[in-house]
Design goal:
Layout: E1 25-29, E2 32-38, E3 44-52, E4 68-73, E5 83-92, E6 98-107, E7 112-114, E8 123-131, E9 134-141, E10 146-153, E11 161-167, E12 170-174, E13 177-180, E14 188-198, E15 203-204, E16 212-218, E17 228-230, E18 233-238, E19 248-256
Parallel strand pairs: 1-16, 13-17
Antiparallel strand pairs: 2-11, 2-16, 3-8, 3-14, 4-5, 4-11, 5-6, 6-7, 8-9, 9-10, 12-13, 14-15, 14-19, 18-19
């Protein structure tokens, strides 16, 4: 969720109803799980969602693991060169300690840690908005009444999609040389109150008929936003959307070891690895 730029993601508990769920296309990614919305001719000016900060289940294996939850604009297309995002992390140190943090990033620039204490169980609300070349990134810990807002001029912009993602972050040594880090066991996490606004001013949930919603499952065989998946990855699977399309959960499940290498693939949403100490 760095040139050593490293980029990231994660999710919050959503109350899903028993009513018929909203439908979406499906795909797989080697590092993303969640939903993206997109449609030819549609561009986005705002994305927002709420989640409960998860707590990673850690072991004293000597291996660090990482997970990230974020909202963002752009970055879904494989040829995209930009992504505007903000979110939180739930990681494990090599000594088995769970740590939480917050961050923002305007890909292709490096990510930045937000000095805002986030604890497991806190309700978090995140928003990204774009006006011209200015990006406004906001994160609020609703539980503890703390907030962060940063306005920046973007060196590159992509507004052709909006995303709600739980991610296995990646570490990058260049724009075309990245590998995915081991995914932390975040249990189950979910987004709620998810919405996006288009440049026409239309406000909609993930399942709004004015755009296409794509359900993304994290799997080793999924499409690669990074040049080398590298690390052993667990899988992460989103549920169907709630009736109304504003909420879903993502569940950690099992592990798999990706193989192969795709040189030159774009770097999208692969946020900074915090490399916490044990």
């Amino acid at each position: 969720m760095s040139r050593r730029a490293i980029w990231l993601v994660i999710a919050a508990v959503a109350a899903l109803t028993a009513a018929p769920a909203a439908l979406a296309d499906s795909t797989q990614s080697s590092n993303w799980a969640g939903y993206a919305v997109h449609r030819s001719g549609v561009k986005y000016t705002k994305v927002t969602a709420t989640w409960i900060q998860p707590e990673a289940t850690c072991s004293r294996s000597g291996r660090r693991t990482y997970s990230s939850m974020w909202v963002g604009i752009g970055g879904y297309r494989l040829n995209s060169n930009a992504l505007e995002q903000i979110g939180t992390e739930a990681d494990c140190t090599a000594g088995g300690r769970a740590v939480s943090s917050a961050w923002y990033e305007l890909v292709p620039d490096a990510s930045h840690t937000i000095r805002l204490a986030i604890d497991p169980g806190d309700r978090v609300r995140a928003t990204v908005s774009v006006a011209g070349s200015q990006v406004t990134l906001s994160l609020s810990d609703v539980t503890r009444h703390r907030s962060f807002t940063r306005r920046l001029r973007a060196t590159a912009l992509d507004t052709t999609s909006a995303e709600w993602i739980l991610e296995a972050p990646s570490v990058c040594t260049s724009a075309v040389d990245c590998h995915t880090l081991p995914l932390a066991d975040f249990g189950s996490a979910g987004f709620s109150s998810a919405s996006a606004i288009s440049t026409t001013g239309h406000v909609g949930t993930i399942s709004d008929p004015r755009w296409t919603a794509t359900k993304i499952s994290l799997a080793a065989t999924g499409r690669r936003f990074v040049s080398d998946p590298g690390a052993a990855l667990a899988t992460a699977v989103p549920t169907a959307l709630s009736a109304g399309g504003a909420a879903f959960n993502v569940t950690y499940s099992g592990s798999a070891t990706p193989t192969g290498r795709v040189q030159g693939a774009r770097v999208a949403g692969d946020r900074r690895a915090l490399s916490p100490s044990s």
